[in-house]
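User: My notes are a mess, but here's the protein and fe (ii) ion's SMILES. Can you give me a structure?
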Amino acid sequence: MITHYSDVQLHTLSIQGVKQIYKERLHFPIIYESSTFIRFQISSYATLSFKEAYTPVSPAHVAFQVPYSLFYESASFLSQSHLLLLQQENGEYIDDENGRRNLYFRDGDGHLLEIIAHERVDETVLKPLGDLRIMYIREVGFPVASVPVFREWLKNKLSMKTERDQDVFNFVISGTAHAVVVSKTRPWIPIALKALPPRVVVTFGTPDLSFIKELGKKVENAKWDSHLLCFSKEEYAFQVQFTPDLHKDVPAQLNLPF
Ligand SMILES: [Fe+2]
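Assistant: No problem, the inputs look usable. Here's the predicted complex:
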């Protein structure tokens, strides 16, 4: 099974601009850098990457899971970063209800980012990293023409699951990885941002080599590239990486459903 997002690669118009935000303001360590690419370590088992390209940016949605008890520390660090924080629909910045806290913000390319915490997630399992206290990448957004078609593909090929099936907005989950599958006609909250499909390369991690081998037979156009299984679906590029360091029991220890 897929346990987590091990890397998410976003599109940028400026690597220098990315460094000003992610290194200087958010304090993420750089683990690789070239003239058109940069990669940050953002949690113990996840990296966030940016590829520079001369083409318009469609904002991506990515959410970072932080510990519930440290949420306000993480939010306070974010407000001191002078990044653009977004008001929720009720005018407040932080939404705190029913054991869930979140705060939205944007980076220099306009990507829609979020810190989110859930009271039910066990905080002792994964060590939070950095000033944002990130435990893992929880969400990546996938605006699509048909939510049912993309959802069923994720279920059938990647063995991801849903708590319930919905036609306009659906979480499709495996481990800590939540794919937010939304209709292109449904704007992103909290600012009714048009849901353009972003240029992303999403890398999933699994400690199960046989899962990757089976997947290679199931998906169309699968290719191996330096130990990664690579394939695409609609506008989205996917990779699957063998990550034995993150044990398959971690999602259950965190109290996650799948
Ligand atoms: Fe979200």
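The pocket of fe (ii) ion is lined by residues 61, 63, 114, 139, 180 (CB under 6 Å).
User: Great, I'll file this with my notes.
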